[in-house]
Every structure is written in structure tokens, then in C-alpha cells.
Design a protein that fits this description.
alpha/beta; 4-stranded parallel beta sheet
């Protein structure tokens, strides 16, 4: 049975029957970059359920439900969570990532591969795993993709103590307003993707690079033409082209194809409005 939202708090004074397991959900969305290792509230809940049963199954949340394409540097948080759950006798760990809802979520393939490795062996080094994946999956473009992943993590480290990062106003559904998404970060990231595309040795690798690049294109589109300036139209055209070629139909949890079409139309209207402003 699920321990989720209003049922997450454990009961006291009872024991679960031997055939009952608890699917404990880490449903706190107020601090999306915080590990359970740093959450005394979650640790109390987990300990409370351990007093009720020795059959705890974890359901963790690893994505941004409203903006699955936004760059989300939470892979180290995921690793910390996995290690905590293993150390506290969880029988199973499941995580809701973007690939369950959106083909082009932020670095889906990397997240899936790295988390799978960590579930087999939580002691593995996360940075080593990311580098191994990038160099293997992206071929000759791998060094540039590895540089992008490092840029994202380094950029997060620089601003992680900002209140807007600790507690985003939209919680786990944060948008492009985060201080992480600075002009400097976007310019450097865009350059790395340009280099990765040029380095790709074949169409398959290029497709993988472009699918990952959707995150940076999406970020710029969300920030608007006021931010991207004269490049906004070409960014929108490239985003639309990649989505069409790679059959990307959804941008957030629960959407179907018309929602993507509507989003593209909204961005086009935003551009039209900007161009008509004196």
C-alpha cells in the first residue's frame, strides 16, 4: 500500500502483517535539489515506517513535472538518495524520471544508465559514470557532451545556496527563472552543443546530441525573445524541427501531442508580440 501525501506519516502502535509492504513516496517537492540525507523530516518518516514493517519499497521523484526539458542537475541528489535507501534496508527503489512521460526529457538516456548502475552498486562514483556514458554514447561528440554535463553541475554548485535555488517559488515545477539559468551558462552550453554537433561522426550520434540539445533550446524559448533577442526565431525553428524529426510529442507530465503544438504556437505568438513592440 502507498504511503503518499496525506498517508505518508506512519501510524504508531501497530505492526503491518507479513504480507503487507509499504510503498513509501518521497513526495516533498518544496526543495527539489535536497537529498533525503539532508531532510530530517523525511528521515523521521522513514524511521517511523521501519517500526511498522521491514518491507519498505521506495518511490522517489527525479524530475520536473511541468518542465521536463529544463536542465535539472539532480543526479548527485539521486545518488545520495539511493545510498540512503539502501543503507536503511529498502527492498526496492523506483524513481519517476522524465523518460516515463516524455521522450526528450533532460538527458534521459544518461539518467537511466547512471541510475541503473547506481542501483546495482550505490558506491560507484557518479562523475565517473557520467563520463563513461558520455564517451560511450556520444562517440566523437562525447568530450563536448561531458563538458556540458560538467558545466551544468559546476554552474549549480556556484548558485546552490541562493534562496531561489533552495526553495524555488514553484517548488519541483520550477521554471526558467532559476538563477542557475544565467546568460553565461546558456551561452557556454550552446557553444558546447554546437561543437558536439560538428564532431558527431554519423546521423545516429547527431540525433542523440540534438535530442539532448532540446533542453537548452527549450530553456531559451521559455526565457523569451526578450532574453534571446534576434536568435529567438532560429531557436524556435530548430526546436520544432528536432521535435518533428525525432517524434517528440510531450513536454510535461500527462501531456499529449496537441499540448506540444500549443506550446510552439504560444512561443510564436510571444515572438510576434515582441517584434511588434516599438
Amino acid at each position: 500500500t502507498y504511503a503518499y501525501t496525506y498517508t505518508q506519516k506512519p501510524p504508531t502502535g501497530i505492526k503491518a502483517r507479513p504480507n503487507v509492504g509499504i510503498r513509501l513516496c518521497n513526495s516533498d517537492s518544496t526543495q527539489p535539489f535536497r537529498s533525503v540525507i539532508d531532510s530530517s523530516d523525511y528521515q523521521q518518516i522513514h524511521a517511523g515506517w521501519q517500526a511498522v514493517t521491514d518491507k519498505i519499497f521506495i518511490y522517489d521523484y527525479w524530475n520536473n513535472w511541468s518542465h521536463m526539458l529544463l536542465p535539472y542537475p539532480d543526479i548527485h541528489m539521486i545518488a545520495k538518495n539511493i545510498r540512503y535507501f539502501v543503507d536503511h534496508n529498502a527492498l526496492e527503489i523506483s524513481g519517476l524520471g522524465t523518460a516515463t512521460r516524455c521522450k526528450a526529457g533532460d538527458r534521459d538516456a544518461m539518467f537511466a544508465w547512471v541510475t541503473a548502475k547506481l542501483l546495482w552498486n550505490p558506491a560507484l562514483d557518479v562523475n565517473d559514470l557520467i563520463l563513461d556514458f558520455d564517451l560511450g554514447y556520444y562517440g566523437q561528440a562525447g568530450p563536448h557532451m561531458a563538458a556540458y554535463n560538467k558545466l551544468l553541475l559546476d554552474s549549480y554548485e556556484k548558485c546552490k545556496n541562493d534562496e531561489a535555488m533552495i526553495k524555488p517559488k514553484n517548488k519541483r515545477r520550477f521554471g526558467a527563472e532559476l538563477p542557475l539559468y544565467s546568460k553565461d551558462f546558456i551561452e557556454k552550453a550552446s557553444l558546447l552543443f554546437e561543437r558536439a554537433e560538428k564532431a558527431a561522426e554519423n546521423k545516429d550520434v547527431l540525433n542523440r546530441v540534438e535530442l539532448a540539445e532540446l533542453s537548452i533550446l527549450y530553456l531559451q524559448l521559455e526565457k523569451g525573445p526578450e532574453f534571446a533577442g534576434a536568435n529567438y526565431k532560429s531557436i524556435l525553428d530548430k526546436f520544432t524541427s528536432i521535435c518533428t524529426q525525432q517524434e517528440v510529442h510531450s513536454l510535461n507530465q500527462g501531456e499529449i501531442q496537441p499540448a506540444l503544438t500549443q506550446k510552439i504556437n504560444d512561443w510564436q505568438e510571444r515572438l510576434n508580440s515582441f517584434e511588434q513592440t516599438p
